[in-house]
Structure formats: C-alpha cells, structure tokens
Design brief:
With 298 residues, the protein is of the alpha/beta class. The chain contains 13 helices and 9 strands.
Length: 298
C-alpha cells in the first residue's frame, strides 16, 4: 500500500477486489491493513454488515487509520488489531472472528514508512538507522551494521538483498563503524561499489536497505509462519490473496500454494502472478514490482 501526494493508493485495488470477490455480510482479514486502502474497498462491497479485521504491527499507522475512519460508516465494521501476522491464528481467535471469506497480505513497504516515519527506511533522507515497524522489536538496523560480524552482514546482503557487491559493502560497513544514520550507510555503500553501479536504474543503496529492513523485521520467516495460519482461518470457499514486491517473497508464496494445491487443499486462481496495469504503474511507479497470487480454499 502506498501514499503518494498525500493520497493513499492501495496497489492493485481492483484486482484485489476481483479475486477476493466480497459479498454483502462477509468477513475478511487484512493482514497488512496500513492506512486502509484495501480494507475500505472491501467494506464497500460487504455492506451493510460485512467486516474486516485489520492487522498491523505498527501502532502509529493503526492510530492514523483509526482517526481516518472515525465517524464514518466504516468505523463499526473495521476492527483493528495491533500485532504481527506471524500470530494470525491467535489474533483471529482473540477477536472471535469466525467464517472468514478472505485473507489478504500486501507485503509492500508503505510510503508512510518511507516518507513520514523518520525511522530510516529511505536512503533519500538523513534519519537514524532504525528500520523497525514496531518499537517493541529490540533489533535495529543500527545494531546490525555496528555489531554483527562481517560474515553475517555479508550473508543478509547476499540473500535478502541479492546484492552482487555484498562482500565489498559488508567490508566497508565494518571499516566505517560506527554508522548512525542513513547517510552514513549510503556513503559506505557508495565507497564500496564501482562508479558505474551508481548510474543504474535503481539506486545503488536499494538492495542494502532492503536486506537490512527484511533482517530487522524478520519478514520472510514471518510470512512463512503466516501462510499456513491464513488457510486455517479461512472458511471453505474462502480466498487467499498475496501481493509481494520482490522475488524472495513471491518464491515463498508460489511454493506454498503449489504444495497446498498438490495436497488438494487449495485451487490456485492465478497460474502466473498478476501484475499491475501500465496505467497503474504510470500513476504509482512504486507498484511496478508488485505480483499478486490468489488461491481458493477447497
């Protein structure tokens, strides 16, 4: 989900609604509710009594959404829960949210986090190296770059960032300690990489920041834990939708759905991942890497 020019632009909203196929009175779970773009679209289709249980690990962004819907027709039908979707089953049970017709994951980093949180998610701003979605998480990007071993830093850059210069960047990070801000980190990456790499299509620090964010928030492991729970909470005939933004996430989702299809648990609705339209990418360039996969619980 993304915020651009002050507007909340949920990625592939029309496709999400089409695959979830919400109907009046049905209940859904949005595991990454953010500023509510997808959740509110679903609530439009489930009038008058359908509900959405919206999860987010970040209490600040949940408070923003709560203020957004206060006094509107959605207030009573949007139930908000602060928690990690790795604990999806427990959260659904806690809120006694039964007969779930659909579960949605939008794994994209929100523009609110990039542009407003001040937590160091963006290499375009000078901010502390935090990168946590939740302040309850004890691990920060600053701790990783200053205290993890050269080998461990290289490992996350290579695996999570798929960074071709992982070794050189890790060596420069260790050599440059202490690093306190995003600018410190960007300068270290710049020193470690050749000049031609700085003129690429994506910013030369993109993969390093991605790797650190994934490591800090344990993103891939949380997704692996959440997907089986999503199927467990779904009612028969319910739909699972996942929007991912890089190949590591998409690989996890693809393999999970294939395995469950072989077991006869789901029917895959998307033979290939659905991509955003050219029109959407033009309006919201950050949607360009989105991939949507969907399945029906049998």
């Amino acid at each position: 989900m993304f915020v651009m020019s002050g507007l909340h632009l949920p990625v592939m909203k029309d496709e999400v609604v089409r695959f979830l196929d919400p109907k009046s009175g049905e209940d859904f779970v949005d595991c990454t509710v953010g500023l509510g773009g997808h959740a509110l679209a679903v609530l439009e289709w489930t009038r008058p009594s359908g509900r959405v249980l919206g999860l987010d690990v970040d209490p600040v962004i949940l408070e923003r959404l709560k203020e957004k819907v206060e006094g509107t027709e959605y207030e009573e039908r949007l139930i908000l829960a602060c928690g990690n979707f790795a604990n999806l089953g427990e959260i659904v049970n806690r809120f006694a949210f039964g007969r779930v017709s659909g579960v949605l994951f939008d794994l994209g980093l929100s523009s609110w986090h990039l542009e407003e949180s001040g937590r160091g998610f963006s290499f375009l701003r000078n901010e502390p190296l935090d990168m946590r979605y939740s302040s309850e998480n004890p691990l920060t990007a600053e701790f990783i770059v200053n205290f993890w071993s050269l080998r461990d830093i290289e490992g996350i850059l290579r695996v999570y960032g798929q960074e071709r210069f992982a070794r050189r960047i890790a060596e420069e990070i260790v050599r440059s300690r202490p690093l306190r801000t995003t600018v410190d980190l960007v300068m270290a990456v710049e020193r470690a990489t050749p000049s031609w790499y700085h003129r690429g299509r994506i910013h030369f620090a993109t993969k390093t920041f991605q790797a650190l964010r994934i490591a800090v928030n344990n993103e891939l492991e949380n997704l692996e834990r959440a997907l089986p729970q999503a199927l467990d909470v779904l009612d028969e005939g319910g739909r699972l939708i996942v929007i991912s933004f890089h190949s590591l996430e998409d690989h996890i989702v693809k393999n999970f759905l294939r395995e469950k299809a072989k077991e006869g648990v789901v029917k895959i609705l998307t033979k290939k991942p659905v991509r955003p339209s050219e029109k959407e990418v033009k309006e919201n360039p950050r949607a360009r890497s989105a991939r949507l996969r969907a399945a029906l619980k049998l």
